[in-house]
């Protein structure tokens, strides 16, 4: 049996159960998603955007899926303490794919701002959800979009109305929790209306030492002149496989900065597609990857400059150790007529061992003549002279290597605008390099 | 303090040092002179354990220990310091973090607790004064964007921080302007104690005027071919090396 079949069978056999425990807006797209997934199948490595990750292999095992939506007896507010000192956030939890709504943070959000389960949102504001859900993450071309849309039952909804600025960071901790291997399909919708401002922090943790497979689709709508900072921090374990597809649509003069840090993981594949639909929009993508053992991290980006006067910036840095593999493929597309585009793309990688592998593929496609674009990538080894210089001063080889790795990763950490988070990440990264972060430090439960 | 016996070393299979014998006693300053390519930097690199070089014969003892058996960092902890001919730039590693790591590594080796942040910064400030190192430089990445002279000054600052027993200065004078040379040399003299020694590699008399070496050696094609008092440096300054070469060949 091929990898796809078990998912097709699962859907066919449980169609009603899935629908019953989900929402109309989500159910509406399932049939098409099923047809698309059946037609596409998992992408092979011949598919350009999946060159570096073996998808079918990751999906081959038979994971459990919690279609009945059995609740776990966990209160994450008690079980979890994400200590980002000096950063007070409005803290929410997603337990697998379910928004934890039995207890909510005490600090109220500004009027009109919504942070809730997608299912609830689809019931309470159906027109808002229907207008957005699945509009960016189309199922016709990407099998993972199709699979997720076919199976996803719930997720997160974040909505900031026109002109409202949310001062406090909205933090959402994605907890993976299960006593057996589990597949989780999560959907996230983020809608910022005209002039809205928000900062989101998504942290991925795994509470149990189980095999997890997560598919996640994030759709972000950034209205005119809106400002969004979205941080994603993965700190799971080697048995976790994460497939995340993020789609961002930016209207005129909006500014969206996406930060993605893979601190600890098993297999991670992040696809990020940004469409610059309105003039004057600005997008910044920062990625930091730390991998060792046999970890695999693949970041695949597309920035589509549809109109003129937009700016895009990408900086991805990887520190690869042991036998880890990393991939970065970033395509910048400057369409016909997208004049005065400014685009900068850089991928720099440090391979600390000869066995570590890095595939780097920045791509620039330009169909306009008045543009300022640059792209480049480097793969380097540890600087032997610098190592020796430090050792001559009495610094041990391990410590010297740590300092060089930390220095290398530092550039992308420094790009974080939120100071408390920047400090915290420095601390976590240092711990990670010292080997003190082999599981996840955020939750007390799994220590 | 330092005893080098019949030391042979090569790089990439090419023999550079061809039998060096040299003894440095506590408190002594030895100058090492010689033409470009003679092997002076090779000797200093071999002494501090640069893995690029291979020792093929001979022995080195440092305060009674078999130096060649120690890792580079252990040699440093034992009190060996090299002021590099070409100090290395380390982008992204701040001088403060670099020095903190170095000082605390040594303290750990000595069985001491890491230094408190306040004490450490105070120490940085005090030692900086000795070589008049600009505070701006101390806040940057290690040697990154430093001028040639600033790098050399920074080497002696690090020496001040680490208080070595034996310092090897490999052309620390090159790249320093006249005033900077005086400041660095005087700084070096302030750091001297009756127990500390130095091996000073230089092409010029000027640094030696400040440091007043006890012994001067001439290295030629991987061997020490002449040893004398301070007057030997003066003679080399005036006459060059040809006469020594002629003498050696005559033997
Ligand atoms: N990696 C290498 N491979 C081969 N030969 C080398 C290598 N590094 C140095 N050498 C050679 O070793 C010899 C000694 O070099 P060394 O740097 O010790 O000279 P030096 O006495 O310090 O000269 P200078 O006064 O110019 O600093 C030179 O002939 C040099 O070319
Ligand atoms: Mg030299």
What share of the residues of chain B lie within helices?
40-55%
What is the mean predicted local confidence, pLDDT of chain B?
Answer: 95
- Over the alpha carbons, how many angstroms does the gyration radius of chain A reach? 21 Å
Percent of residues in helices of chain A comes to: 10-25%
CATH level-3 fold name of chain B: Rossmann fold
Describe this structure in words.
The complex is a heterodimer of chains A (447) and B (251). Chain A is of the alpha/beta class and 447 residues long. Chain A has one domain (3-446). Helix content of chain A is 24%, strand content 39%. Chain A contains eleven helices and 20 strands. In chain A, strands 1, 4, 5, 7, 9, 11, 13, 15, 17 and 19 form a ten-stranded mixed beta sheet that branches. The longest helix of chain A has 18 residues, at 3-20. Chain A is globular and about 65 Å long. Mean pLDDT of chain A is 93; it is low at 442-447. With 251 residues, chain B is of the alpha/beta class. Chain B has one domain: Rossmann fold, CATH 3.40.50. Chain B has helices spanning 40-48, 72-77, 95-109, 117-130, 135-138, 148-162, 178-191, 205-211, 230-239, 242-250; strands at residues 2-11, 14-24, 29-33, 53-62, 65-66, 80-83, 90-94, 141-142, 166-170, 197-201, 215-220, 223-228. In chain B, strands 6-9-10-3-11-12 form a six-stranded mixed beta sheet, sandwiched between helices. In chain B, a hairpin with a 2-residue loop joins strand 4 and strand 5 (65-66). In chain B, helix 4 (117-130) packs across helix 6 (148-162) and helix 6 (148-162) packs parallel to helix 7 (178-191). The longest helix of chain B has 15 residues, at 95-109. The two termini of chain B are 31 Å apart. The mean pLDDT of chain B is 95. Chain A binds chain B through residues 383-386, 388-397, 399, 403-404, 406-408, 410-411, and chain B through 48-52, 71-73, 75-77, 81-82, 84, 87-93, 97-98, 101-102, 105-106, 109, 141-142, 158, 162. The structure holds adenosine-5'-triphosphate (ATP) and magnesium ion (MG). Residues 11-12, 14, 16, 34, 36-42, 85 of chain B line the site of adenosine-5'-triphosphate.
């Amino acid at each position: 049996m091929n990898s796809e079949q078990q998912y097709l069978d699962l859907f066919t056999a449980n169609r009603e159960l899935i629908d019953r425990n989900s929402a109309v807006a989500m159910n509406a797209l399932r049939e098409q998603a099923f047809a698309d997934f059946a037609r596409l199948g998992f992408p092979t490595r011949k598919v350009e955007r999946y060159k570096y990750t073996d998808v079918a292999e990751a999906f081959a095992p038979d994971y459990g899926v919690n279609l009945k939506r059995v609740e776990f007896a966990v209160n994450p507010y008690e079980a979890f303490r994400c200590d980002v000192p000096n950063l007070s956030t409005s803290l929410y939890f997603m337990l697998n794919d379910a928004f934890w709504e039995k207890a909510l943070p005490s600090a109220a959000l500004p009027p009109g701002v919504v942070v809730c389960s997608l299912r609830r949102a689809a019931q309470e504001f159906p027109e808002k959800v229907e207008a957005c859900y699945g509009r960016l993450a189309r199922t016709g071309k990407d099998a993972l979009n199709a699979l997720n849309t076919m199976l996803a039952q719930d997720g997160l909804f974040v909505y900031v109305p026109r002109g409202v600025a949310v001062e406090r960071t909205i933090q959402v901790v994605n907890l993976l929790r299960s006593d057996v291997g589990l597949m989780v399909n999560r959907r996230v919708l983020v809608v910022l209306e005209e002039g809205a401002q928000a900062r989101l922090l998504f942290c991925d943790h795994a509470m149990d030492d189980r095999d997890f497979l997560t598919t996640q689709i994030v759709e972000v709508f950034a209205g005119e002149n809106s400002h969004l900072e979205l941080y994603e921090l993965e700190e799971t374990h080697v048995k976790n496989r994460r497939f995340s597809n993020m789609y961002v649509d930016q209207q005129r003069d909006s500014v969206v900065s996406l930060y993605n840090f893979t601190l600890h993981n098993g297999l991670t594949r992040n696809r990020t597609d940004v469409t610059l639909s309105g003039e004057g929009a600005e997008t910044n993508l920062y990625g930091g990857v730390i991998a060792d053992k046999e970890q695999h991290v693949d970041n695949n980006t597309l920035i589509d400059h549809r109109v003129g006067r937009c700016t895009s910036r990408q900086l991805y840095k990887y520190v690869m150790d042991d036998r880890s593999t990393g991939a970065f493929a970033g395509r910048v597309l400057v369409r016909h007529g997208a004049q005065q585009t400014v685009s900068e793309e850089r991928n720099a990688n440090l391979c600390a061992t000869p066995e570590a592998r890095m595939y780097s593929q920045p791509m620039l496609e330009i169909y306009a003549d008045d543009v300022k674009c640059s792209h480049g990538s480097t793969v380097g080894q540890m600087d032997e002279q610098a190592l020796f210089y430090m050792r001559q001063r009495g610094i041990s080889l391990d410590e010297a290597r740590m300092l060089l790795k930390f220095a290398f990763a530092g550039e992308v950490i420094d790009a974080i605008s939120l100071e408390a988070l920047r400090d915290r990440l420095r601390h976590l990264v240092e711990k990670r390099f010292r080997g003190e972060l082999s599981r996840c430090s955020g939750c007390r439960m799994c220590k | 303090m330092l005893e080098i016996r019949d030391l042979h070393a090569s790089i990439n299979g090419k023999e550079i040092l061809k039998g060096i014998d040299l003894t440095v006693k506590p408190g002594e300053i030895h100058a090492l002179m010689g033409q470009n390519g003679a092997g002076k930097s090779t000797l200093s690199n071999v002494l501090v354990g640069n893995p690029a070089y291979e020792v093929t014969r001979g022995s080195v003892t440092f305060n009674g220990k078999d130096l060649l058996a120690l890792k580079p960092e252990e040699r440093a902890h034992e009190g060996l310091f090299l002021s590099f001919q070409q100090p290395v730039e380390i982008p992204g590693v701040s001088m403060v973090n670099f020095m903190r790591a170095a000082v605390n590594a040594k303290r750990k080796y000595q069985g001491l607790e890491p230094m408190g942040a306040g004490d450490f910064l105070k120490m940085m400030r005090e030692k900086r004064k000795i070589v008049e190192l600009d505070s701006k430089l101390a806040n940057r990445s290690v040697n990154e964007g430093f001028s040639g002279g600033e790098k050399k000054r920074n080497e002696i600052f690090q020496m001040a921080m680490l208080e070595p027993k034996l310092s090897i200065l490999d052309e620390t004078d090159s790249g320093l302007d006249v005033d900077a040379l005086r400041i660095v040399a005087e700084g070096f003299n302030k750091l001297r104690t009756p127990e500390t020694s130095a091996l000073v590699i230089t092409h010029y008399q000027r640094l030696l005027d400040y440091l007043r070496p006890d012994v001067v050696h001439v290295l030629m094609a991987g061997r020490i071919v002449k040893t004398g008092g301070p007057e030997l440096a003066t003679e080399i300054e005036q006459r060059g090396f040809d006469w020594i070469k002629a003498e050696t060949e005559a033997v």
